[in-house]
Amino acid sequence: MIAKNLYTVIYIAAALICVCISVYLSYWGYYSHLQELTFLFAALIGILLFGSDLLIRHMKIAQKSLVFPLLFFTLVAAFSGASNFNFLYTNFMQEDIAQRTVREQFDIFREDLTQTRRTLLSRPAYQQVSGSRAELQAELENLRDQLNDPLRPGCGERCRAHIRNIHEMLGGAPTDLAIPDPGAGEAVVNTWYENFSNAVLADFERRATRGSYTAIRAVVHQIDQLLVQYSDPDGALRAELAGRPAALIRGEGLQLISELRQYSVEIARQANAVVPADEPIQHRPITSDLDKIGEIPVSFKDGFVDRPNAGVTIVSLFVAVFVDLAPVLFALVLFNAKITSNNVRPGQRQRRSGGRVAT
Length: 359
Description:
- This protein has 359 residues and is mainly α.
- It has helices at residues 2-34, 38-61, 67-121, 124-147, 157-170, 186-208, 213-229, 233-243, 255-272, 296-306, 310-334, 337-340; strands spanning 352-353, 356-357.
- A two-stranded antiparallel sheet has the order 1-2.
- Helix 3 packs parallel to helix 9 and helix 7 (213-229) runs antiparallel to helix 9.
- It is rod-shaped, with a radius of gyration of 39 Å.
- The N and C termini lie close together (9 Å).
C-alpha cells in the first residue's frame, strides 16, 4: 500500500511539473496569435493535459482499453506540442532569423539608395552645374596660388586675369571688394581671398537654385547620410534588441525595418520629383516577416522547410514533445495491476468491494 501511494504521489508530482512547463511554453507559443486570450487557452490546454494523464493512469490500473484516452491525449498534445515547439524554436532562433532578415533588407535598402544616388548624379542638370562648379573651384585655386606667389605677392595682371575669368563664369562680378595691390601683405591678401571666394561660391549657389541642381544635391546629401547611418545591420539589430529582449516573441517586429521602409519610400519620392516622369526611380519594397516571428507557421517553415539549423529544430521538437509525452509514458510503465493492486497470495482470489477491484 505504501509503495502504491508513493508511486501515485511521484506520478502526480511529475505530471504537474510537466503540465506546468507545457502551459508556460504554450502561453508564449500562442501569444502572438491570441494576445489577451492566451492565458485562458494555455490554462485550458494544461487542464486537459493533466486530465488526460490521470485518465490514462486510471484506465491503465483498471486494465481497460486505452485507445480513446490516448486518442484524446494525442489531440490535446497536438495543440500543445505545436505551441511548445513554436516558443522553443523562436527562443533559440529569433536573433538568427532577425539577423538574416535585417541583413537582407539592409542590402536591398543600400543597393537601391546607391543606384538612386548614381542616377541623380548622372542627370545632365547636375552634371552641367557640377562641371561649372569644378571649373570655378579650379579658377579660385589658381587665383590663390597667384596671390601667394612668393616672388610676386599681391594681385598683379595674371591675378586679375583669373578674377575676370571668374566674373565671366558667374555672368558678372559677385562683389565690389577692392583688389589688393601687388606687394600687399600676406594677411591682407589672405583676408581678401577668403571674402572673395565666399562671395563667389555664394553667388554660384544662388544661381544654381534656379534649376534642379540644388534639389538633386540635397537628395544626394541625404542619401549619403543614410548610407553612413545604416551601414552595420548587425550593430543596428543589437542596439534595438538590447532594449526590447522579448519584442520578437511578442510579435512586435522591429522599428529598424519600419525606418528603412519609410526612408526608402521618402528618398524615392524626392528623387522622382527631380527626374523626368518617363524615367521614374523605383525602390524595391522593404518587407519582412519579423512581425510574424512567434507565429506557429513561421516557426515550422523556418525549422522544417528552410532548415537553417537542424540541431535547433531537433532539440526544440524533442523538448516540445517530451514534456507532454513523459507523464503518459510514465503511467504506462509505472502502473499495472501487479504494482497497484493489493498484495494477493498465490491461490487466493482478489478481494472485491462493491463488485469492483479495490485499487
